[in-house]
Specification:
The structure holds two protein chains of two kinds.
Chain A lengths: L9 H16 L24 H14 L5 H14 L2 H13 L1 H9 L1 H7 L10 E6 L4 E6 L8 H4 L4 H4 L1 H6 L4 H7 L9 E6 L4 E6 L11 H7 L2 H5 L14
Parallel strand pairs in A: 1-4, 2-3
Chain B lengths: L27 H14 L6 H9 L3 H6 L2 H15 L5 H6 L15 H5 L23 E4 L18 E11 L2 H4 L8 E9 H5 L8 E7 L3 E3 L3
Antiparallel strand pairs in B: 1-2, 1-5, 2-3, 3-4
Helix pairs in contact in B: 1-4
The chains are: A mainly alpha, B alpha+beta.
Chain lengths: ~240, ~220
Amino acid sequence: MADDTTPMDRRGFLKRAATGAMAAAVPSSMHSQDHDHDHDHDHQVVPSDPALRTKALESLLVEKGLVDQTALDALIDTFEHKVGPRNGAKVVARAWVDPSYKARLLSDAASAIAEIGLGKVAVGDHTLVLENTPKVHNLVVCTLCSCYPWSVLGLPPMWYKSTAYRSRAVIDPRGVLREFGLQLDEDVEVRVWDSTAELRYLVLPERPAGSENLSESELAELVTRDAMVGVAKVSMPAGGAKA
Amino acid sequence: MNGVHDMGGMQCMGPINHEANEPVFHSVWESRVYAINRALGAWHKWNLDAWRYDIELLPPADYLRMSYYEKWLAAMENRVVKYGMVTKEELASGKPTSGSSKATPVFTVAMARVLEPRIKAPSNDPSVVPLFRVGERVRARNINPVGHTRLPRYARGKTGKVVLDHGVFLFPDTNSQFLGEKRQHVYSVQFAARELWGEDSSPKDSVYLDMWDDYLEHTGS
């Protein structure tokens, strides 16, 4: 049991973590009883290596029965392979080809997303779908942390979580969009959605011109993660429309 | 808390680095940090609001210097001690102290598979009455709570319009410190870009924030 509940002093903490990381990295037989590193002078390099600290923490938590390695593997597999922007792209493509689906998606996104058969991961996420049009452009950010519609887009990319994007998206959305290569006309209304609560926002991009003959699955292939966050438009592949 | 995490409107953070074909995780340790964090959440020792607050409590220089998952790791190391799952000594040694008890039940794959919603679903509980109505002009209160809050500084004191009522949610300012759920309505409130940032902004643009009842006041119009 912890001897107190106050957060550790950072420096003391890193020194302790150093010892922990060493314990994980070095076979126990190499530790000597009379020279552990839990003393208070500065010859030891403070570990900057989060990989070692992570390994130390994981092995401790496994030994204490608080996590299980197989379970961690399963979680990683879910987020690397099962949830991701392809799910959102299916939702967008369906909305493009089926006006009644689109209407349901805009009025009750959770149910409409569940119709696509994304399974359990989508349940309970309070998603709102924002429709981009020639006159309205929606852009999603989380200025306070990294809230993101992961059930339909997976884990957010680094730029979405970066201080640069989080700080500027609300004050200079048009400048941010130009940085992504998207220049909007002055008469387009820009709506920035700062995800301050538990609502998650998915942008429904405009269907690109010239895509009339594409099938739903071909359309889904065109839809990018960036377009569903609102920092890009969906475009036809170079070389123009398929026959 | 008026911390560095509340960065909406800052302009000193450099260019946005977009990485083509970005992997889900950039290294194995990041994926382990993500998964360990997620697994520990299944013990329900904390809630999502408290979880966010732990990251906000990192020293500001660390917050700005660390990578995303380094922040998660540092907050997680603090958190497992704070909630009594691990002692400081165990964290330091990487080994359970002798006589330390094993978790019961021991963590299982089944626990990890439960990707349950991390915040209770919004309810339409009619006993929780909305204090504002869609279409109403409202002002974000000028408050500076020292704990966790989801009312960004850039909106405080600004006037906007309620455009949607999302239903009833838990109030993060109290829930983050286990001081009660204080259920109340959350609304999308539209603020004109010029109201927030002045005359240099486009008159066409606006920012929408999700606001709890306790963040808002009537404007009388």
